[in-house]
Amino acid sequence: MERAKGMEGLERLDRHWRWWVALVWLVASLWLVYQHWARIRGFALPDTDDNIRIMQVRAWLAGQGWFDLRQYRLNPPDGANIHWSRLVDLPIAGIKLALMPFMSGADAEKAAVTIAPLLPMGVAMAAVSLTVRRMLGPFAFALALAILLCAPSDVGMWSPLRIDHHGWQLAFLAVSVSALTDPDRARGGLTLGISSALSIVIGMEMLPYLALLGAAAVLLWVYENGRDNARQLLAYGASLAGGVALGYALFASYANRAPVCDALSPVWLSALMAAGAIAVALGMLKLGNIWLRLAAAAVGGALVAGAFVHFWPHCLGRLENLDPEAEYLWLRNVLEARPIYRHGRDVIVAVCAIPAIGLLGYLAILAKVRGDGPALRRWLVLAAPAFLAAALLLWQSRAGPAAQILAVPGAVALGWVVIPLFWNSRFMLVRVVGVVAVFVIISGTGIERAMSWLPQKQKGAANKAVDRANGLCPSLWALHPVALVPKGYVLTHVDLGPRLIAVTHHSAVAGPYHRNGRDIAEVMKAFRESADYARSVIDRRHIDYVLVCPGISESTIYASEAPGGFYMQLMRGQVPKWLAPVDLPKDSPFRMWRVVKASAQS
Predict the structure, then answer these.
(1) Helix or strand or coil: residue 508?
(2) C-alpha–C-alpha distance, residues 591 and 485, integer Å
(3) pLDDT tens digits, one per residue of 289-304
(4) Residue 228's CB: how many other CB atoms inside 10 A?
(5) Does domain 464-601 have CATH number 3.40.50?
(6) Is 286 exposed, middle or buried (0-12, 13-18, 19+ CB in 10 A)?
(7) What letter does residue 259 receive in the DSSP assignment?
(8) Neighbours of 101 (CB within 10 A)
(9) C-alpha 282: how far from chain center
(10) What value, to the nearest 5°, has the Cα angle with vertex 69 and ends 472 and 502?
(11) Which pLDDT belongs to residue 321?
(12) How large is the C-alpha radius of gyration of the chain?
């Protein structure tokens, strides 16, 4: 009787699994809001991109054109060229507008930046749950959700205040993966095309994984043939081509209508529409021989690649096309642009634990199903982008969030292989302890905990000072006195520019956005070169103030690489006569000077 009740409970869990996913999302969302409550109250947007995103939303709601994405508070009066799209602005603006009749504009904005990042988390949870249910069994979703919530890089992208576009890109990547597990192949192809198009409208970061999933759809048609695979390919090609065309028409900014490489522009619009058209053509072919299908697919791929090389050769290298001076002065020092092995041990473990477990799980499940052709191919489709993301970590650590979410099905598969070894034991203690131990390991938490027990190098005074400056200078408390200074154009750190314009009325020269490489390089050269060079930049740009945060990460570059430069002269008290100090509170982490104009000096 107890067994019957247990089976009935499992059947209920299976029948209402979507509601359980929704409940887990709600509980996780409330917990994240609780964890970040102090930061929410302080409007502590954690990243430069989050600050620029809210500025994009504000500008649009204040009347700036839908297709005009320039940020005019950076590099005024021309503005900074921001390569994003408005798609991610929509939920933030929608929530803010919906709440403004019931609360102040500031509170509505805080609510919007709190709620908006949680929405893609729900989408990703549903997609990952769907994937593992189809591949492993009806109850695998519970383990998948638990592992996903232990993925620090992913959860960090969905936490309150993290309003940048990466959270939505991860969600659409999860949807794209789930599409290729759909037993209704036509629906799966349609889903893959639409989710890929939405991700590309947002940005190009997930393009390698989406291209691999598209290639997988073609290869499934090659090896399996059949009406269902042809329908999948037809639906994928049509929805991809139509999706990017519609996305370009609705969201491509004025700047992205040029043949740029880092956004949905004529470059990628033509390439993806051609790829979609070829997928449709392949799906319509009636080729009974596998080698003919493979040859047709190879010819189609060669046509797309050849056309791309011929028409857009400038996009064959790094998509940013950053000017060499900005790359040397700025990009080489950006942490997320460095390979994962150049980070500290704690970061390596936090980022790589789940991908490593996931890859092990994929190998285990591939070995288990090696005699089952269809199952083997489906698992290879899931494993391939996960292995690609893990490999890309050796190039740039920014691949971490994608590597973690792509590894989740593999980690669940490892659990599905190992857990029965303990669950089938006669002894309850073995069952409980064994299952808990397996979860602790496959979720990566056990690895992180074990590494934390090893002796750790203590931070020195210099590193602690950097941490303190990084925490204090972007805070509302620190920037409030700066906001009380009469409005002006400010020469400040590149990484501080977006925060300065988001919470004060001042303008700044630059933020860390690659299309504005000349502005970035000029800021960094102004602080690295002589006071005379800095003055030439200030005069040419009609800058009113100089603002520095001693000890902030960017300043350590000037201290180590330009000890005789303008920034270090200011730190030593060698302030030129054309700068007059601005009174700030004694405990302020900032130092600020007003530029004395030539007429005032005379």
Answers:
(1) strand
(2) 13
(3) 899 999 999 999 999 9
(4) 17
(5) yes
(6) exposed
(7) -
(8) 7
(9) 33
(10) 20
(11) 75
(12) 26
